[in-house]
Amino acid sequence: MTAADVDQDGDMDMLSVDSREGSATVRLNKGDGTFVDGSQVTVGSGPGTIAAVDVDNDGDLDVLTSNWEEGTISVRMNNGQGVFSGTQQVAVKQKPNSITTGDVDGDGDMDMLIPNWGMACTADGCPVPTVSIRLNDGKGIFSGSQNVTVLKGPTEVVAADIDSDGDLDFVVSCQEAISIRFNDGKGNYSLGKDMLLDPSVGAPTTFANITSTDVDGDGDIDLILPDGEETVGIYLNNGQGEFTLDSRITIGLVAPLCVKTCDVDGDGDQDVLCSTQFDNYIHIRLNDGHGRFSGTQKEVVWKTVCSIANADLDGDGDMDLLTATFEKNIISVHYNNGTGAVLAAASAQQPAGVSLFPNPMQGALRVQGLASQATLIVRNAVGQQVYAAQANQKGEAILSLEAAPAGVYFVQAGNQVYRFLKE
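The chain above was modelled as a monomer; its predicted structure follows.
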C-alpha cells in the first residue's frame, strides 16, 4: 500500500494490492481525504507490495508491484490521469518481498532493488537469498541479471548513499541481521558486510522492515528497525557506512513489525511509528530534534498492521496515515489533528455527552447524546457511505450493521464525526 498523486490533481491517492485477485487497486482522492471507488489494474500472481514512481520519465507516477508467487515485478504505465496499462513482467528471483527504487547506475532514471526471500526448498537445496538489481533504460523497460547475495530472509531494502561517495548503496533487513552492500558507482554491488543484531533482546519479528532517516542531523543516513522482541533500534552512521547502536525505543512485548518515520507533530524532525504483531496499535514516539524518542501514544488499528504509509490526505498541511493489515485485508485512514497528539480524524473526537457502544462492535451500534432527530451517515475507512439513520427525539439511534464487513467506520452527525470499529 502507498499514497501518491497518480492523477496529478494535487492530492494524494491510495494504491493497494490484492494478492488473491492478482490486481492493484487505485482509489482517487476527492481532495478532502475521502476516496472514490477503486479501479482495478491487472498485475502478476500474488502481489504483495506496490510502489508509485515515474519510471518512463514522462512526469507522472507509474505503478510497480512485487509478485510473490511468480517471482516477477509488474510494471504498469500511467496515462497521466491515474489510468494504468501495460504487460511488462520483470523477472527477479524467488519470492520477491518488496520494491525499492533509485538511480543506482547514475544515468538519471529510476532502477529497482528487489529483496527475494527465496524460502521454498527443493531436493536440490534452498534458493540463495538475494537482492535483484534491475536497470531502467530510461523508458521504463527493465533488464539485467545482477542478483546480490545477502543473509537469510531479506525483507526490505533501503537505497541511500551510506558511505558518502555519491552513489546509492543498499541496506536490507534480514532475519536477525542486516546486510550492507556498497555501489561501485555503476550499479554493481560486490563489496559489503553483514551486521548481526543483539541476540540478548530476542529475535525481531519475521518480515520486520527497515527505514532510514538522518536521526541525529549530522548529514548522513541512519537506520531504524525492529531489533528485538519488544524494541526498535536506532543505529547511527559514522558517515562511512559503519552503523552502531545508539539507543532503543521500547514498544512492549508485542513483537514490533513495521516501522515508519514521518514528522507527525510538525516540528521539523522525523518521528517514529511502529506496528506490532500482537496488539492492535500504532505506537508513536516523538523526536526531540536530537534523535531521542519518547512518549506512549498509541493509535487503535487492526491487529497485525503490515504496511504504513504517510501523506497529507486531507490537504490540511499535516501528515495523515494509511494502515493495511494482514489478517482482515483492510486499509484504514487515520487523520492527524496537526500536533501529532492524536492520529485519528480530528473531527472523530467524541464530544462529552455522546456515547457509542459497544465499541468495538459486531452487529448493532447504539448512539446516544445526539441532537433530537439528528441525521446520521455511516462511512467506511475510504469515505464510502454504507448506512444512514435518524436519531429519535431523545437523540438516540441504533445502527444495524450486521451486513457491513469488519473495519474502521465513521458516523457523521451534522459537523461532528465519531469513529468506531466493527470486528
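The longest strand covers residues 84-91.
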